[in-house]
Design brief:
alpha/beta; UDP-N-acetylmuramoyl-L-alanine:D-glutamate ligase; Protein-Tyrosine Phosphatase, Chain A; Rossmann fold; 20% strand; 9-stranded mixed beta sheet; 3 domains
Amino acid sequence: MSNLAQLNSWHADWNNLRVLVYGLGVSGFSAADTLHELGADVLVVADKADDKLVDVLDVLGVKHHIGEEISQTIKLVKEFSPELVIVSPGIRPENPLLLEAASLDAEIWTEIDLAWRVRDKHGKASQWLCITGTNGKTTVTQLVEAMLLAGGIKAASCGNIGIPILDVVRDPAAFEVLVVELSSFQLHYLGHIEPLVSAVLNIADDHLDWHGSLDSYAQAKAKVYNNTSVCCLYNAGDKKTEQLVAKSLGSEKAQAVGFTVNTPAPNEVGWVENLLVDRAFIQDPAVAEELATLEDLVKIAVIAPHLMANVAAAAAIARAIGVQSAEIKAALQSFALDSHRIELVLEQDGIRWVNDSKATNPHAAAAALATFESVVWVVGGLLKGVDIAPLVKKYVGRIKTAIIIGDDRAHVVQAFEEHAPQIPIFEITSSAELVMQEVIRIAKAHATAGDVVLLAPAAASMDQFLDYADRGNAFAKAIEQGVSKHHG
């Protein structure tokens, strides 16, 4: 058995280490490719995979078994007798193949653990800033990257954000700082890393079907704080995140800093009316340093409280590693949100059509519902074990009409019948290809000047769409065909 503890550098001896890579999405492929380059003996198994990725494994000469029966796959794994398993983060811990690997005394890592060990490929090891939370992770990660680049720091965003972290580690550009977005799945499996800065943006019900309980989900998120050296950032408006910092291990020397949409206390970054100010990373906490103003967010279509919170969080992370206020201001002035995040698709006849398909859980949808006064709400999909009733109950005063889509419609209908029986609801039972045309037809019939037709489904999308982006694109296309072309 190899001593995996000694494998803590790209330049360590990885030759012939038997590694099983379980799952062949973008991160699994990146892990297999990296390990092959390091000289390890790699076996890839997956339930399904993109043919193009399988073709590349063939070219590389990496062994793989895709789509086999689980019993057959377990037999193959036993014969291979891996010393290490790299698991794709969505695979559940109780998966029979993982249990089998554990019984063979194989260690289980994700690509994040591997990336931490080999981050010195191009010389000096990169520093990591790690960001997690139920919502806002991607926006904050991208904002921090923009602020660091404005500050002249060679930085790259990666991880759960879409660019596999191992691709960034291997990039000859040799980034000084990685801004790493981490999901609860990645954190569940995570071993030992040592971030400069770590942040939990918020904690709300999500992925409860995977983690089993809100407490287990929160504990996974909390792992991001462990061994942080400079700053542990928490949400001053979310007590759960502050409690998680207090329980973190090995981060005693790190400064605990809050971010807020309100006037910041000492050791916080937040908003005083339309000014973003820092009271954490300054010489005299009795004064505040202005970082930016609301007017600096000109490129962002809809300014909402959760966006202000995300900006405060990102600014705090950037300040923790020495980015100056002028550089933060410059980054904000040129920043544009990704698609599908409270994105204004069309404004016509006094009606705004807004795509927030990225709102894949109730907490994210709440941020959108809180932004608008009168909403024709497009809601539903795969609820992932989360109860939507509290969301309906809280925002009943803002919802004019509900258009319900997706496989888990019955739960959404029940929530409205119990908590908002006076609100008209429409269930869409069309085939997946026609869902959004039907949504737009009903929305057009019920929206009037002053309303917002809001796609904020509070649910995952894979029942009817490839992903949240596909759902958002279908919504936008249906608006173009059914609303803007029929104007006048």
